[in-house]
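At this stage, I put together one protein's amino acid sequence and its backbone structure tokens, which the following lines show:
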Amino acid sequence: MSMKILIATDGSPHARKAVKIGSELAKGRHAEVHLVHVMLSGELDDDLQRMIRVEHLDGLRIVDDPTIPPVAAPGFPIAFPITDPGASYRAIEAIGTDILKRAKSAVNAHGVDRVSTHLLDGNPVEEIMKVIEREHPDLVVCGARGLSSLSQLVLGSVSTKIAQRCSATCITVH
């Protein structure tokens, strides 16, 4: 029976450490890895736009020119007119796709070739739990603190809630 490891990632430094640790554990056990990212919902706030600039997420650009159509071709920047009502969602989806692509590359770099990615939309705890219930991982690895808002810090983090609800072994990475 093959071991399964689920790694939840939001692209934050703690989540990148979780990907590294989960990858190392997977390599040593010849495990199958499931990478999960739940997209942030809502408009692109200042913090997310700053993250886009700092991380250089595949050339993702928000432009203030309604004549520029969205472009998403390999090797080309992704541009979204700021006046496009669907631009925020597509930008968030592009960020999530890039986060998973980077995480998968990191897992592959550790010599793990059985990697599945799950890009989801909704409540992070509920969506991650759905994947846990469907895939039945032996181990769940999450970063201790990611892109959570102050209210989530007060109400409890995603990793804490997952650990409380999950029957699998959970590792929370600080």
The chain has six helices and seven strands. The first helix runs from residue 13 to 29. The first strand starts at residue 4 and ends at 8.
